[in-house]
C-alpha cells in the first residue's frame, strides 16, 4: 500500500520544522583554511581582521617631486616659489615618501628653467605656481585598510575584490565554511541515463544535473549517486549510504501516491519524517525528515516541481549550514497580460516572461506544467499566487521576482501573436547583430496579437487573418479592431499552409471531408489562431460539420506541437505550415499560401527593439535562413504595407 500524503502545511511551516530539527541536532558549521587565491565564492567562517595596514608605508600617489609642503606655501600663479634641488626628491607613483617630505607635486605642475630638459629634474631648481597642502598626493599608511580593523564579517561570499583586500591586509589563508555535501539520489525503474534515442517509457535522468547546479550555486558540493531502482530496500540502502557520506540528501521522486512511491515510508522507517505534503504548487508531494542526524528532502520527480522544492526547502538548509544568505533577487511590479487562476489549497509559483512596453512591465504566464522544464529556461521571473488567493485577472498588477536583470528585460522585443518558427530565427539573427537585445515571444494566435496591441502589451505580433468575404489577409481585421488607427501592418513572409500527415500520406488525406471519415483523427489549433480560422473556413467551404471530425476540439498552440502529435501517431492530420512538417519529416498536403504579416503598434515603432527587428527582416541573413527552412516565399519583408494612422474617434 502506498504511503498517502500526511500533511498540507504552508511552506513557511515546512521550513520552520526542518530548521528547528537542524537546530536540535546542534552546531553544524565546519571550517577549513584555504589560500586566498582559491577562495573565490567561498563563505567566510569567521570575521576577518587586517594583519597589516594598506598601504603599510606612506606612498607617493603621483609621479613628480616630493618635498615638505611648507616650502611651497605662498606660491600662486603670480607669486611663484623656486625650490632648490636639495629641497626636493624626484619620485614615482608608489615610491615610499622620502624622509623629511610630507607632500608630492605632480610633474605636470613642475616648471623647469628655460632650456633645461626633464633629465635634469633633480639637479636643477624648479618653479611652482601652486602651494601644496601637507599630505597632498600622498597615500598615507592605512588609507585603505588599518591593521586590526575588520575586513569581512563571517558569512560573506568572497568576491574578487575581497580576495585582493585580504592579500593587501597581510592575510594569505582564509577560514571558510566547508562546502556542505549534498547527496542526490535519483530513483525509478524507468529512469535511465541521458541518451539520444530513449525508448517509450524511458525517463531520462536530468534532474540530478539541475539540482547539482543549484547546490553549487549556493556554495554546496553535490554528490550524485547512481540511479536507484524502485524497491524500498534499494532506496533504503542508497539513503543510508548517502546520509553516512553527506550533510544533506535529496531523494528524488517516488514522493507521490503511486504504486512505487516509497520515499516517505523509507524515511519514516529509517529516521523521523517531519512532513509529507506542502501547500505549494508545483511541489505539493514534497517531504522532509531526519535520518541519522542528516536532513533528507523528498523532491517530486517532475523537474519544475523539483526546482521549486529544492529552492524552497534545501536553500534554507544550506543557508543554515553556511551561515550565509542567498536572499531572493530583486522583485518588480508587473501587469499581468493574461488571467491566471489558482486554487485556495496552495501557494502557486508561476513562471512568467517579462517585457517592458511603454515603460510598463508586462508579465505573460508561461506553461504551468510540472514537467515543462523549458518554462524555467524561458522565464524572466516568478510570480507567486498566495494560498488564500484564487489568482489574478488580466491587467492586474502583481509583484514578480526577477530571474534576469531589469536592464536586460527592458531591451527585450516582446512578440505576442501567431506562432511561426521564423520568430526564433529572427531572435537568433538579432542577438548576433546586437547582443544586448533579446526576444521574448509568446504564442497566442493572431487575434492574441490584436488584443495585446490594444492593451499596449506587445511590441509586435504575427498575424495571418483571412477575410472570408474578400480572400484578403489582415487589413479588414485591423480596420475593424483599430478604428482609431495607431498600428502598422508590416510585410513578413508568405507561407504554405496544408495538412501535416504521416510520411507518404498513407491514408490519402486531401481535404477536411476526408478527415470527417470514420476512424480519422485530427489535431487542431486554438481558437483565435489564424490557422484555426483557416480550418473553420475550409470546413464551411467544403460543407463539413466540424463536429464530425474526431479531434477537432483537440487544440494545440503551435505548429510544431501539432507536427509532434502527428509524428507520434496520436493524430492522422493537423493543419500547419510546411516548415514544421519538414522539421518532423512528415508528409504535407498543400492547401493554400497565406500572408503572414507583423502587426506593429505605433507606440512601439521607435523602440531600438522594433528598429532592430526591421533591420533583421530586411537582411540577407533572414532571407537565406527563411528560404532554407522551406515552405516560405519572401518578397519585401520589413516593408510597411499600410500605416493605420491615428485619427480621432467620431
Ligand atoms: N494519484 C496521484 N498521482 C499524482 C499525484 C497525486 O497527488 N495523486 N501528484 C502528482 C504530482 S503533483 C507530482 S509533482 C508527481 C510526483 O511524482 P513522484 O515524485 O512520485 O515522481 P515519479 O512518479 O517517480 O516521477 C514523475 C515524473 O517525474 C519525472 N522524473 C522523475 N525522475 C526524474 C529524473 N531523475 N530526471 C528527470 N525527470 C524525472 C518523470 O517525468 C516522471 O514521469 O506525481 C503526480 N502524480
Ligand atoms: O506538486 Mo506537483 O509538483 O504540482 O506537479
Automatic annotation (TrEMBL):
Gene3D superfamilies listed in its UniProt record: MoaB/Mog-like domain, MoeA, C-terminal, domain IV, Molybdopterin biosynthesis moea protein, domain 2, Molybdopterin biosynthesis moea protein, domain 3, Periplasmic binding protein-like II
This protein's record includes keyword Zinc: no
Cofactor: Mg(2+)
Enzyme nomenclature, EC number: 2.10.1.1
Record GO terms (molecular function): metal ion binding; molybdopterin molybdotransferase activity
Cited InterPro entries: MoaB/Mog-like_dom_sf, MoaB/Mog_dom, MoeA-like, MoeA_C_domain_IV, MoeA_C_domain_IV_sf, MoeA_linker/N, MoeA_linker/N_sf, PBP_domain
Keywords: Magnesium, Metal-binding, Molybdenum, Molybdenum cofactor biosynthesis, Transferase
Any single GO BP term: Mo-molybdopterin cofactor biosynthetic process
Domain MoaB/Mog: 183-320
Catalytic activity annotation: adenylyl-molybdopterin + molybdate = Mo-molybdopterin + AMP + H(+)
GO CC field: cytosol
Pfam families: MoCF_biosynth, MoeA_C, MoeA_N, PBP_like
Family: Belongs to the MoeA family.
Protein name: Molybdopterin molybdenumtransferase
Species of origin: Slackia equolifaciens
